[in-house]
């Protein structure tokens, strides 16, 4: 097992808010059924923000 920890479905606040924010954003962006370069760029920027959020987040205990 990875880090000798069992499989647990208890998510941290960071994971929960990132998932909720991503679902709301993608729903809002694609609500009209079409997109343009600005919306695509906005999605890439949000992806980079989430990447930085996870990169600089503290490691879970025990790993």
UniProtKB/TrEMBL annotation:
The protein's name in its UniProt record: Uncharacterized protein
Report the superkingdom from the record.
Eukaryota
Q: Which UniProt keywords apply?
A: Membrane, Transmembrane, Transmembrane helix
Bilayer-crossing regions: 14-30, 37-57
